[in-house]
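Private note to self, pasted from the team thread so I don't lose it. Backbone tokens:
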């Protein structure tokens, strides 16, 4: 796990070389173990290495292929490198035990055809010194980041945005990205917050010619795979895929820890890791100071105790949030959507103190099995579409235990979610209040088609899932995870995003995802006999709303009463003040808007003056 920065130049300037070196240092945290550079007339490369597999200098990058034709910078892990070695290489092809060299030598033999055979997380650059082609490639889900910027004289690419901005010398903001964030909750989906910086789409690669012209190609599509297996076959196949993924994610020459929230996914990952790991490991859990209703520690401690593992608890206070707000926003390079990120940050800081270099997290399970609360109504609508039974639809929607306590407002929210999932939190609560936004800004970015929900699949449940996978939940959480781990020099692994496991579970029949009013039914069936406590998902696991009424009140007031905010092109200052005053008096108001506003204001302040 590492970080790299590169620049492909049409012309050479010695001063550009020194600017490049200074800019590259902005991502030195991504690779605390080694640093190296490569310079030629038309190409600058900088690499910062976090050594995980083959700790020797044989794994140093940029790495040159054995035939001296290809040069590569690679960030990530190729978990099936032993299989690829056996299939395509022999012992004489390799001088190290690093997966970097396996990938490079396989590309040397198979070119771009190798991309679809890779299992893991990756973002890499390859230079064909013979034909003068350059390649940028990213893994199927975008676990590892890869950004690029194009102008007439150069293409800059790298693992983070800050060094690219520094080389460009001016952070021009992308207005459309802010509208997607405020009105759809999107982050790092198909655009960044900076006009000139693009994100390479997951599951795709760029082929760049010497004149800087380039083509973009997809090498993988999640919906290309169909599954008609029944319960018994699906149950056995899923269990094998999940546990094989855990085994692969335990390959490391450094210590591995696990973030244990106490929820089902992290609990089962921990149990399987204990079963298959030959080394001892620890678990890490975060907590919030104050009210125990937001605590995950009880379940996490119980799981750790039953598995005979140490559990380290990090407690987040309001003071910690206030002190680290600017630091977190600069690290993530965008606004944020939840105070839970401060808990994640503190967990990584705790793991770093204990010399952990690899952490396993449980992201991706809800996206592949349709585990969010609002996914349920799309399942019911898909069942109605297939069977055309109106009475059954009404019974399922409004007379089952999931919906028996719904208020009129809850029912209205559910209906709204079916038309605009992007504007709802995971429990179906709408968060959009356009009155908070500057009217000129709204008129500029919102057209008649803006609120039309994307149709990514004819299957209504899969369409709901794909919105979370491609636009909403997954891009957001993976960005958070990458930045908060790498700022602490730690590699994060996400076994639920093994693409073979994900393909299979995503494409299961609907009645295996939902049954008996339960979401993720088949996965729960597989592990129902575990001796560990499996806790249902909670939609609220932080004190964000409470703290915005008390502990963060002074910080919020100071930001929205600043001169910059009063002149904001995004927010209506008077209405924001009025809205916040009303929020302070209400009990159950969502604070999603408030964290958007506060974090956006700090982000703008931080990056407007970044240079």
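Design output:
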């Amino acid at each position: 796990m590492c970080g790299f920065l590169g620049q492909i130049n049409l012309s050479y300037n010695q001063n550009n070389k020194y600017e490049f070196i200074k800019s590259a240092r902005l991502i030195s945290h991504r690779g605390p173990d080694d640093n190296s550079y490569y310079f030629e007339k038309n190409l600058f490369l900088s690499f910062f290495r976090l050594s995980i597999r083959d700790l020797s200098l044989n794994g140093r990058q940029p790495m040159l292929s054995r035939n001296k034709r290809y040069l590569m910078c690679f960030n990530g892990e190729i978990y099936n490198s032993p299989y690829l070695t056996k299939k395509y290489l022999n012992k004489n092809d390799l001088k190290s035990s690093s997966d970097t060299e396996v990938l490079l030598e396989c590309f040397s033999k198979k070119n771009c055809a190798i991309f679809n055979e890779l299992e893991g997380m990756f973002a890499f650059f390859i230079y064909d010194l013979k034909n003068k082609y350059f390649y940028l490639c990213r893994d199927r889900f975008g676990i590892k980041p890869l950004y690029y910027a194009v102008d007439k004289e150069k293409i800059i690419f790298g693992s983070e945005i800050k060094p690219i901005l520094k080389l460009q010398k001016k952070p021009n903001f992308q207005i459309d990205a802010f509208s997607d964030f405020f009105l759809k909750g999107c982050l790092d989906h198909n655009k960044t917050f900076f006009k000139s910086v693009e994100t390479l789409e997951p599951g795709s690669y760029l082929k760049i010619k010497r004149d800087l012209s380039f083509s973009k190609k997809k090498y993988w599509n999640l919906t290309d795979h169909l599954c008609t297996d029944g319960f018994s076959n699906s149950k056995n196949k899923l269990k094998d895929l999940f546990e094989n993924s855990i085994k692969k994610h335990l390959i490391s020459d450094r210590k591995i820890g696990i973030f244990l929230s106490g929820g089902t996914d992290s609990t089962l990952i921990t149990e399987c890791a204990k079963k298959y790991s030959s080394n001892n490991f620890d678990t890490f859990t975060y907590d919030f100071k104050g009210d125990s209703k937001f605590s995950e520690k009880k379940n996490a401690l119980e799981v750790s105790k039953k598995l005979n593992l140490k559990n380290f608890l990090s407690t987040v206070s309001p003071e910690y949030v206030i002190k680290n707000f600017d630091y977190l926003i600069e690290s993530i390079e965008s606004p944020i959507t939840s105070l839970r990120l401060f808990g994640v940050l503190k967990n990584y800081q705790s793991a770093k103190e204990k010399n952990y270099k690899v952490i396993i997290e449980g992201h991706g399970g809800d996206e592949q099995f349709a585990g969010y609360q609002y996914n349920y109504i799309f399942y019911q609508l898909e069942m109605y579409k297939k069977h055309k039974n109106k009475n059954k639809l009404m019974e399922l929607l409004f007379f089952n235990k999931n919906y028996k306590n719904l208020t009129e407002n809850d029912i209205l929210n559910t209906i709204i979610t079916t038309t605009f999932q992007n504007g709802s939190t995971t429990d179906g609560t709408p968060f959009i209040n356009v009155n908070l936004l500057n009217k000129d800004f709204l008129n500029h970015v919102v057209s008649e088609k803006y609120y039309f929900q994307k149709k990514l699949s004819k299957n209504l449940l899969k369409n709901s899932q794909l919105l979370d996978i491609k636009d909403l939940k997954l891009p957001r959480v993976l960005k958070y995870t990458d930045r908060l781990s790498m700022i602490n020099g730690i590699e994060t692994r996400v076994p639920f995003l093994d693409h073979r496991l994900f393909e299979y579970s995503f494409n299961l029949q609907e009645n295996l995802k939902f049954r008996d009013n339960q979401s993720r039914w088949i996965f729960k069936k597989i592990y129902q006999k575990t001796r560990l406590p499996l806790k249902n998902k909670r939609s609220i696991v932080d004190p964000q709303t409470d703290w915005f009424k008390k502990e963060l009140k002074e910080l919020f007031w100071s930001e929205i009463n600043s001169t910059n905010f009063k002149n904001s092109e995004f927010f209506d200052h008077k209405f924001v003040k009025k809205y916040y005053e009303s929020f302070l008096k209400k009990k159950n108001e969502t604070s999603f808007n408030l964290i958007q506003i506060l974090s956006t204001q700090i982000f703008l302040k931080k990056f407007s003056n970044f240079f």
